[in-house]
């Protein structure tokens, strides 16, 4: 909402004592920049890759997680989302979440070199992410999904 006010105030300030075309042009340019920034910030990809030695890696937001440090995994359904991201959240957890994505994947880590207890990642299809990343845990982890 603050971005809208910035566009309106900037346009009004720049458009003082100028023809209306200036105001329309500046408002259009600032709106396009605002939309581009929002789309860029909201595009997060989650990828699973496999090394030649067979190690699977989860890649998202510049972070990498090998499958061999995941002790447990869980698909977090929409009904448990609020608790997982609210009262039960560990501040040391690694989060990749979006407000409009209802389901998440939780990956509990067992890595003595890392203080991060778990990862929570928003995804449209938690079942597919778990089957690709930790296939041996996927069936049990997705039992809570519809």
Protein architecture, described:
The structure is a single chain. The protein is of the alpha+beta class. The chain folds into two domains: 2-42; 46-141, no CATH class. Helices cover 40% and strands 24% of the residues. It has a four-stranded mixed beta sheet. A hairpin with a 5-residue loop joins strand 1 (46-50) and strand 2 (56-60). Helix 4 (126-133) runs antiparallel to helix 5 (135-141). The longest helix has 23 residues, at 20-42. The mean pLDDT is 87.
Tell me the structural class.
Answer: alpha+beta
Helix and strand pattern: HHEEEEHEEEHH
Number of domains: 2
Query: In what order do the strands lie side by side in the largest sheet?
Result: 4-6-7-5
**How would you classify the quaternary structure?**
single chain
Quick structural gist:
This is DUF3093 domain-containing protein. By secondary structure, the protein is α+β, with helices and mostly antiparallel strands.
């Amino acid at each position: 909402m603050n971005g809208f006010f910035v566009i309106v105030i900037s346009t009004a300030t720049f458009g003082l004592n100028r023809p209306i075309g200036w105001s329309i042009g500046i408002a259009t340019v600032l709106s396009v920049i605002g939309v581009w920034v929002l789309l860029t910030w909201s595009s997060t990809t989650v990828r699973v890759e496999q090394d030649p030695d067979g190690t699977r890696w989860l890649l998202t937001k510049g972070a990498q997680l090998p499958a061999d440090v995941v002790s447990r995994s869980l698909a977090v359904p929409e009904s448990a989302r609020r608790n997982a991201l609210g009262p039960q959240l560990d501040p040391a957890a690694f989060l990749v979440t979006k407000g409009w994505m209802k389901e998440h994947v939780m990956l509990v880590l067992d890595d003595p070199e890392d203080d991060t207890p778990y990862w929570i990642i928003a995804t449209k299809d938690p079942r597919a992410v778990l089957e690709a990343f930790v296939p041996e845990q996927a069936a049990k982890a997705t039992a809570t999904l519809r």
